[in-house]
Amino acid sequence: MSLANGRLHMALPGPSIMPDSVLQAMHRPAPDIYDPALHDLAQGLVADLKYVAQTDGNVAIYIANGHGVWEAALSNCIAPGETVLMPATGVFGHGWADMATGIGAEVQVLEHGRNTPIDPERVRAALLADTGRKIKAVLGVHVDTSTSVRSDIAALRAVLDEVGHPALLMADCVASLGCDTVQMDDWGVDVLISASQKGMMVPPGLGFVFFNDRAAQVRAAMPRVSRYWDWGPRANPNLFYEYFGGTAPTHHLWGLRAALDLIKAETIEGVWSRHQTLAQAIWAACDHWGAPVAMNVADIVHRSHAVTSVMIGAPNGDRLREWCTQNTGVSLGIGLGMGDDTDPSASGYFRIGHMGHLNAHMVLGLLGSIEAGLDALCIPHQSGGISAAARVISAASGKAKPADRP
Ligand SMILES: *Cc1c(COP(=O)(O)O)cnc(C)c1O
C-alpha cells in the first residue's frame, strides 16, 4: 500500500514549492502588451526586487534561468582574455567558472572541496599574488546548493578592500535570495545574480542581475557586450519592451508580483528568521537520528538556511529518496556532486530543500516522512528526531513558562 496520494511535497532545492497565490496570479489569458498597466507592474517589481536583495542599485530582469544570468553578469563585465578568480565549493562554483571559460575568460579556480566554505585567506593570497592586477572579478557562490555550504560574501569584500584590489565582487545568490540573509549593499557586492525558482517561489524562467554604479562603470568601459545580455536598456529602459529585451514574460511577472507581495507582507527579516528556525528544526532532527545520518556541513555557521545536504552511507540516500517518494509523497533532492558514474558515493547522500514557501507543518511532515523511511528501510538511527524538531518549533513560538502553565 502506498500512502503517497495527496499533495506532493517538493523538498528539492529548486524548483521550490509555489504558493497558491502565485499559481492563481498566472492563470489568466494573455494581456495586451501595450497596456500601460504592464509598465506599472514592471516598475513595482524592480522596486521590490531591490528590497529583497537589500540594494539601492540597479536590477536587470532576464528571461533565463540561473545559468543564463551567470552568463549575463559575466558578459557585461568580462571581455575575452580577461581573468576571473573563482574560489569554488561543491558544484555551482565550477558551473559559473565554466560559463566564464565559455565567454573566453581566463579562470583561476581555488578548489575548496565538498564541505568547506570559501576561505578568505586563500582569496587574499591570490589577490596579493596578482601584482599585475589582472583579476577583474572575484566570483563567489553564497550558498552552494550541492553541498549546502554557505560562504561569507562580506568577508570577500573585506579582503578586496584590505589588499586594495580593484576587482569586482560578484555573488551567486540563486539558492539564498529569499531564504538566507542577503544584503547586497552592506556586504559590498558589485554584481549579484539570482533566479525565480528557489526562494522567490516562481516557476523557473526569470533571472535577475543586480549591479551597482561601480559595475555599471566597468560595463561602460567594455569593448562590446552582446545585445541580449546587455543590462543597460533592461535596467534603464526608454521603451517598455527594453525591460525584457523583447516580449515581456507576462505570466511570470504576475507570478513574481504575487510572490513579492507575500515577502513584503512578512518582511524580508521575517522571511530570513522563518528560514533560520525551520533550518534549525531540520538540523535538530538530523543530529538526533545520529550515525550513520550526519550533515555534510559540521559547523552551523557555514550551513545554509535554504538546503541541507545529509550523508547516510551508500546506497541508503537513494533508497530513502525512493521510499519517501513512493510511500509518503515527499520528493527529496539527490546527492548532487557527491560522486559520478564511476563513484557510487552520491547514493550515500540526500538533500532537503527548505526554500521559499515553507512553514513549520511542512517541515515536520517531511521530517516525519524521513523518519518513517529510516524505520521502514531498517537504516540505523535513534527514533525521535521529529520530536527534537518539534521542540525547536515550540521554543521559537515562545513556549509557555512554568508559571504561565494552567
Ligand atoms: C540552482 C542554482 C543555479 C543554477 O540555476 P538554474 O536555474 O538551474 O540554471 C546556480 N547557482 C546556484 C547556487 C543554484 O542553486
From TrEMBL:
Regions annotated as coiled coil: none
Keywords carried by this UniProt record: Oxidoreductase, Pyridoxal phosphate
Named cofactor requirement(s): pyridoxal 5'-phosphate
Positions of the Aminotransferase class V domain: 78-314
PROSITE patterns in UniProt: AA_TRANSFER_CLASS_5 (PS00595)
Gene3D superfamilies in alphabetical order: Aspartate Aminotransferase, domain 1 (3.90.1150.10), Type I PLP-dependent aspartate aminotransferase-like (Major domain) (3.40.640.10)
GO biological process: glycine biosynthetic process, by transamination of glyoxylate
Binding-site positions, substrate: R351
Pfam assignment, any one: Aminotran_5
Superkingdom of this protein's organism: Bacteria
One MF annotation (Gene Ontology) recorded for this entry: oxidoreductase activity
Enzyme Commission number: 1.12.-.-
InterPro entries: Aminotrans_V_dom, Aminotrans_V_PyrdxlP_BS, PyrdxlP-dep_Trfase, PyrdxlP-dep_Trfase_major, PyrdxlP-dep_Trfase_small, SP_NH2Trfase/AEP_transaminase
Modified residue annotations for N6-(pyridoxal phosphate)lysine: K198
The family this protein is said to belong to: Belongs to the class-V pyridoxal-phosphate-dependent aminotransferase family.
Protein known as: Soluble hydrogenase 42 kDa subunit
Protein source organism: Pelagimonas varians
